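ok so heres the complex, two chains, lmk if somethin looks off
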Amino acid sequence: MKLPYLDKNSYLAIYITSECVYANLIYADYTSGRSYTLSDKTDIRNSRKDIYQENFWVQYLAQLEKKFNWDFLRGSRVINVSAEGIGVSSIVVHIKNRGVKSGEIVPLIRSVSNEISFKIVNDEYIGHILKGIEERRKYEDIIHINLDLYSITLNRYSLSNNKRTLSQPLSLKPNSGSISWKTRFALIDSLRNAKFKAFLSTESPHSKIENTWANYVLKSTRETNSQTLADIIRSYITLSLLTISNENGEKFAQFGEKHEKNLIIVSGDLLKTVDPLILTLSILDGLEIKGMFDLVLDKWNKTLTLGRNYVLGQESKEFAVGISDIFDDSYKVIAPLVKGKRGERKVIFSGTMMSLEGQTEIYALSPEILNISIPDTKVTIEGKLLKDTSLGKNREIEFVSDKEEIKYIGLIIDGRFKPIIYGPDARTNRLKLSNWINESNQ
Amino acid sequence: MKVINEIVKREKDFNFLIPFDGRAYDVIQKGSGLKRGDLIFKREYKKILQTYNLVEELGIKAQDGAEYVSRLDGEYVTKGEILAERIVRAGLAIRKIISTHEGVISLDRLSHGFIDLLSEHVNEDVVADMSGEVIEVKHESGVLVSTNAFVTKYLLGKIDKKIFGRFDVLGDGTSVYTQRDLKEEYSGKIVYLGRFAYLDLIEEVHRRGAKAVVVFAMDYEDFKNTSAPIIVVGGFGNVNYDFRIAKLFSSMNEVQTFIDGKNLAWPDVGQYLLPDLKLKIKETVGINDLVRVLDIENMGKIGRVVDASNQDGYLTISLENGDRLLLHADSLEIIHI
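and the predicted structre for the whole thing:
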C-alpha cells in the first residue's frame, strides 16, 4: 500500500461567495519535491440565479477540469490521485455564510457528486484558522480583513484577548466587526457622504466621479486601470475600516503596538482593484496602525480554502499544506512612530539586503511610504530605525525572506508623520498623496 | 473561468401580466390557448386629455404635490377651474394651475408631480401579440399569460410595480434625442430613448403619458432626481453604445413589453434572431469570442478576440469600426447577444 504523503497527492478546494467562485487545486510530488497550486476565480455576478441550478455546477466542474488540465471526476465519482493531472484526494466546497443560500447550493452540488464535502465559512471557522496560524507561526496578533464591495469584515485573533484559563476553554470566536450595504442604491449613494469625500484626491467633476462609482458598483470588473476609480476604492476602503474600528470600541485598537509578531491577511474581491502600496496605506490609515506586521494579500482566498489543512498539519486527511502554499503575496510592513517637523525630509531607516547574489543598501525617507522590492531568492534584511524613529523600544529590524517559509515580495516602510490627516479638499489630498507615495524600487 | 453573460436570453413559459388598467369585460378564460390577434379582454377606461406638471408650474418637489392640489381624485371639473395653487413671494403672489378642458381629475401620478385630466369613457379591445396560454385571471389586476419570451436584465431602475405596455423606440434608437423628436403623446407606452438621455427629455416623455422610460445611459445625478419610472440598461455617463445593443432594442419597437422589477421582457414573435447558447461557462477567453469591456476606461465596447497568444493574459480585440484594443482577460466578459 502506498502511503500518500510519500508519493503524490492533490486536493481541490472551492470557495463560493455571492460574487465569485474561487478554486485552488494543490499538488505535491513528494518524491521529486515538486509542488504547486493552480488557482481560478470565476465572477458570478451575472449568474446569481444560475448558481442555484444543477446544470451550472456540472458545467463549472467540467470546465474547471479543462482549465486546470486535470481530471477529478468520472461520472459522479471523485477520481483517486494516481498521477499529475489525474485525481484528487478530495473535493471540499467552502460556502460563505453571508449572501449565499447554502441550503440550496449544497444539494445541487451533491447531485453532481455526493463524494464532495462542504464547509460553511463563518466567524468561528475563520477564528479556528487564525488560531491555528497563530499557534504554528507564533504570531501574537492576527487580523483577517475581507474586502468585498458590499461588505467589509474584520476578524481579530489576539493572544492577549484569548488566554486559556483552567475553567474556560480557549475561545475560537475572533473579535469581529463589519460594514455592509443592503442595496445597490445605498452603496452608490454612500459616495455623497461628506466623510467619503474627505478622503478623495481626484479632482474630476462630481458627476463623473458619481457615474464612475455607479458603473463600478453595478457592473464593472473588479480590476481596473482607471485612476479615478482606484482613488474612489482607496477612499472607500479607508473609510470603511475606520468606521468599523471606531464603532467597535477597543476591538481593533492598538494593533501592532502590543505585540512583536503580528499578521494581517487580506482577501476579497476588491483586492485586485488596488495597488498593494495604496492598499497598505488604506489599512494603515483606516485602522490607525503603528507597529510592524506581516501583510498577506490573499488573492485566491487560499487562507480560507487551504488554511484548515495548514492548521491540521500532518493530521489533515486530505493534504498537508505548508505556509508557503497559502501565503502568496507577502509583505513586511513597518509603520514606526516618526518624530520631527511635519514635512521634514530625513532618512528614518537604513539597512542592507543580503543574498547569495550580493548585498544592497536600502533606506527610507520621511514623510514617504515606500515599497522596497525583495528579490526572488533567499534574502536576509537587516536594518535600523534612525534617531527620532521607533517601534516601541525596538529599533533593530531583521527578517528573512525564504520560499521555504514566507517569501516576502516587498518591504513597506511608512515614514509619514503621525497622526495622518486628510482633507480639507481633494486637491490637498492629492498633494499629500503625491508627497507620501514613492514608487521607486531600490 | 468566464461565465457567459447572456445580454438577452430566450425563456420558455415566461409569465406576462397584462393589466386591466380600467374596467374589463369579456375576459378570456383561464386555461385558454392564445394566438396572435386573439381578444384577451375588452376594457373601458378614461384617456388622458391633459397633463399638468406641478413641479414646473408651481416650482415644487414632486413628493410635495399633495399639499397644493385643491381637487379630489375622480372629481369632475370644467374649463377654468383651479386644480392646484401655491402662495409665493411671502404671500404677494399665487401660482395657479387652471383646467383647460372639462374632464375628470386623476391623481394616480401625483407622486410623480402630475395631475391628469381624463376624458369620458373610451372602449378598447386588448388583443394578443403573442401565442401562449392563459395561466390565471386575476380579477383585481389582469390576465397572466405564459409564452416564450426574450428577456434582458436591466442595470438599475425606479419601478415600484409590474408594468405592461407597448415598446416605443424614439427615432431608430441609436442617437441622443431632444424634445423636438417626441410624439404628441405616449399614453400606455414604454418609451426607449436611445443611447443617452437628459433629465428634461425623460420628464417630458413621462408627462406625455409614458408608463415607463427606458434609456441606455444617463447621468446618475439625473437618475436620482427624476420622479419618472425610469430604467437604465447600459450604465451612467459616457458608456459605449454598440450597434448590437441598438439593434436589440430597435427590433422590439411596437412589441408588447413587460417590466417586472429586474427584467425587460418581450414575447418571442420572431422579431429577433438569437442563436442557441450551448455552453454557459468557458475555461478561458479564446479566439473569436464576442467580448465586452468591463473596465471603466473603455466600458461597453464590444468586439471579437483576434489574438489570444500573449502569455500574460492580454488579448487583442477587434471592434466593429476596425479599431483594436489590447486588454487583459480579467477586464472582459464573454457575451451572448
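quick notes: The interface with chain B takes residues 40, 42-44, 46-47, 50, 55-56, 59-60, 63-64, 66-67, 184-185, 188-189, 206-208, 210-212, 214-216, 218-221, 223-226, 228-229, 272 of chain A (CB under 8 Å). thats all i got rn
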